[in-house]
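forwarding from the other thread:

> can someone predict this with arginine?

sure thing
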Amino acid sequence: MKSAICLMLGLALAFSAPSAARDLAEVKASGTIKIATEGATPPFNYFEGDKLTGFDVDLGTAIGEALGLKVEWVTLAFDGLLVGLDHDRYDLVVAGHGITPERQKAVDFSTPYVCSGAAIVAKEGGARTVADLAGKIVGVQVGTTYLAAIDKVPGVKEVKTFPKDTDALQNLIAGRTEVWVSDKLTALTASEKAPDAKLQIGDLLYEERYGMAFKKGNDALRGAVDKALAGMLAGDGYKKISDHYFKQDIRCP
Ligand code: ARG
């Protein structure tokens, strides 16, 4: 009995696990490109009811269309996104990943598709500068460059980590943390959405260029996506999506 269950489990795993990373030819032959994102980082990628939407989602969908492909979106926790690439669960990730040397050891990135930065966010009168972080309780999302960076700031009293960035925000609003470090554009949207919280966006800890992530060595697919992205940047496609979500153009200068 036990072995029968094991066998069934084994078969289920075998059938649910997709094969090796799909190159451009395979993706084109299938007619569908699988893109992963988090779905919990407004306004980049988030759910409106049960509809996945946001800047990353519109941009990824437009790129898929430019390549003549249907887009199938997959959502999962932020800190699992790059790992899933390695397991060939999808073809690329569009989720606001900062291009870092550390991540470049594990994945390949598209040309930068957003330039943003890590903002120090507090409630009115709270921390604004790196020096102000001394003695503070800071909340950040796990798996992010924000966590890696805050761990290096001397004098921080405590770093609280959250699976979702929106939880880190809610904890700041509720007063369980004193600082939230996150994407400056995400923070701007949050402060507009919750004016009563009186969020104060202070200095940037650092600037960041965001890339779409691919399995290492999947060069033809990455090249095709880069080309489609360049086309959208050259035309008005990118600007329209950016203006819609941010009321500004967030491309890299
Ligand atoms: N840019 C950050 C990183 O590269 C975070 C990405 C997720 N976005 C967010 N607002 N939490 O890790």
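Confidence is low (pLDDT under 50) at residues 5-19. thats all i got for now
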